[in-house]
Amino acid sequence: MRPPILPDVKVRLTGSNGNAFAVIGKVKRAMERAGHRDRVKEFIAEATAGDYDHLLATCMMWVDIS
Prior knowledge:
This protein has helices spanning 20-33, 40-47, 52-62; strands at 6-11, 63-65. By secondary structure, the protein is of the alpha+beta class. It has one domain (6-65). Strands 1-2 form a two-stranded parallel sheet.
């Protein structure tokens, strides 16, 4: 497994209960807090380009998920 695109962004998805909007929101806020506001639109476009499994895979590709 390769490291995430933004390894300095750490997101805990526990408690999101399968809610895609909650997952996207948590990752978006973490990216903004880490100073990556310029990459948020790119992440959201990619994350919403498929189903829920694609969303989770995209999150793992972009940030450090726990």
